[in-house]
Design goal:
The complex is a heterodimer. Chain A is an alpha/beta fold. Chain A has five helices and five strands; from the N terminus they run βαβαβαβαβα. Chain B is elongated. Chain B has helices at residues 13-25, 36-45, 62-72, 87-95, 108-165, 174-202, 205-210, 217-225, 228-235, 254-270, 318-321, 329-339; strands at residues 5-9, 29-33, 50-54, 77-82, 100-103, 213-215, 238-242, 250-252, 277-285, 288-295, 343-349, 353-361. Classes of the chains: A alpha/beta, B alpha/beta.
């Protein structure tokens, strides 16, 4: 069976990795995982996924943002910079609202993810968003 | 610990030298100056822990030096040396912030006792300041800590339950499903409580005023609906939005105002009947911009209306009690709206539905 799409999940919480992976795999996606930003970028370059799910708070507070910045602006990722990003965090609103709702003047130079979701993820909502994002990317 | 530093300011050379000799033997680092001006210059370049200053000097006297030392850094301890050991002169220098005074002539032991006591005060002040700063930092970090350290593991547990309930880990028996559903509901309640609690502590009126900006009402409503449209769809509730063209933008803090709207809309969805509706309407009334959130839900009994904005108040209604709730949502809403200089009104008919109206200021062109 051909996978519906290839998704890279970058998160340092092994339980989130495991459950998110299970939700997405059961729905027919191929899943790659990485537990920090550096590894994430490496896997991203090798496997060229259709979507990246990125946790904001990895080891250092803003590792997620720096991942995003590298992907969107570094010449090394020129070819992949359009990969849709679904940013995920358990820090509700505090960090999320800064970029997720389109008040451009607040944004400064932080690149925006394509979509944002709060942890914990609800399976149906997650699948819904993921399908839309992958659909858009193609 | 670093050597204690003492600055001796005295126009008499003998006094400077003898102070220096006595204190050095005590393992104290000593600098000397012969005028108030020179002493203050040295003090600014290299702040000492303690200043010993002679009261009677030409140009600038000890009282003036004590005043300037205090203005420069109130934590530096000043001790006045005085040949006129009168009550009046002692009172005058203590008023200028001197910590103690030493009448001339004094013995080496007297000098050491007074200086040691002054240095001890300085050390205690420093320690208590460090503790205060540490406490303030802990308070600041507390919110971040709670958010991450508490929400992360609870989120992980929650997601396991979600996965199990989706039969991804294998098929569940009805009994197992029911128990897991219940566990999930309780956990949901707990997560909500943490969120509300954090919101409550984040709202500070002054900060909201600083962040006011002109924003179109439509974008506030759209932002508030993110995620809620999905919840409404799941519950079969029809969401509609009505924004008349030409409505002036509002003057709000986008983050907290979104919180207000999403709180009201989420209540309207939550306490609704199956196949009900939620209508969100913006309009201009009596000089305000008003957002009405109308639902076809359970409604509120008239006698309860005065209490619904109170912290931790929950309706006595059994239908309402079926849902998890923290009793903080509307209290947060009201706090935020008031911090905006706006107001909130409720019209409700028990069994038919409620309309919450939020009044905020127009952004002046």
């Amino acid at each position: 069976m051909a996978a519906k799409g290839k998704i890279l999940i970058v998160d340092d919480d092994p339980d989130f990795l495991k459950t998110t992976k299970m939700i997405l795999m059961t729905d027919g996606y191929e899943i790659l995982t990485a537990s920090d930003g550096k590894e994430g970028l490496k896997v991203l370059r090798e496997a060229k996924p259709d979507l990246v799910m990125l946790d904001i708070m990895m080891e250092s507070l803003f590792e997620g943002f720096s991942f995003l910045g590298t992907l969107r602006t570094s010449p090394d990722f020129e070819e992949l910079k359009g990969t849709p990003i679904l940013m995920v965090s358990s820090v509700k609103a505090d960090t999320g609202s800064r970029f997720s709702f389109g008040y451009e003047e607040d944004m400064g130079d932080i690149p925006e993810p394509d979509e944002y979701m709060d942890k914990p993820l609800k399976p149906k909502e997650l699948l819904d968003r993921v399908a839309k994002l992958i659909g858009k990317g193609k | 610990m670093d050597l204690a530093k003492v600055l001796v300011i005295d126009d008499e050379e003998i006094a400077r030298i003898s102070c220096q000799r006595v204190l050095k033997r005590e393992g104290i680092q000593v600098a000397t100056a012969s005028t108030g001006r020179e002493g203050l210059e040295m003090l600014i370049r290299e702040p000492p822990d303690l200043v010993l200053v002679d009261l009677k000097m030409p140009e600038m006297d000890g009282v003036e030096v004590a005043r300037r030392v205090r203005n420069f850094d109130p934590n530096i301890v000043t001790i006045i040396i005085t040949g006129y050991a009168t009550i009046e002169s002692a009172v005058a220098v203590m008023k200028e912030g001197a910590y103690d005074y030493l009448p001339k002539p004094f013995t080496p032991d007297e000098l050491i006792i007074v200086v040691r006591r002054g240095l001890e005060k300085r050390r205690l002040d420093r320690e208590s300041r460090a503790l205060r700063e540490e406490k303030a930092a802990m308070e600041r970090n507390f919110i971040t800590m709670v958010t991450h350290q508490l929400r992360s593991p609870m989120g992980a547990i929650f997601q396991y339950l979600e996965v199990l309930l989706s039969d991804i880990g294998g098929e569940l028996t009805p009994m197992q499903r029911e128990m897991l559903e219940r566990a999930k509901e309780r956990l949901e309640g707990l997560l909500q409580l943490i969120n509300d609690w954090l919101d409550m502590s984040r709202i500070q009126a002054g900060e909201i005023l600083n962040r006011l900006q002109a924003v179109p009402v439509g974008s506030c409503i759209d932002a508030a609906l993110t995620g809620l449209d999905f919840t409404a769809q799941q519950k079969g509730i029809k969401l509609s939005t009505e924004i008349p063209p030409g409505l002036p933008p509002v003057r709000v803090d986008p983050d907290t105002f979104r919180e207000v709207l999403s709180n009201l809309i989420s209540n309207a969805i939550k306490y609704n009947r199956p196949d009900g509706y939620v209508r969100i309407r913006a309009s201009e009334r009596d000089g305000w911009v008003v957002v009405d959130v109308e639902d076809s839900g359970l409604g509120i009994e008239e006698k309860e209306i005065p209490f619904i904005f109170e912290q931790f108040y929950r309706s006595k209604d059994k239908e309402v009690r079926k849902h998890e709730g923290t009793g903080l949502g509307l209290a947060i809403v009201q706090r935020i709206v008031q911090a905006h200089g706006g107001k909130i009104e409720v019209k409700s008919e028990h069994g038919k539905g409620s309309t919450f109206s939020v009044f905020v200021n127009k952004a002046n062109a």
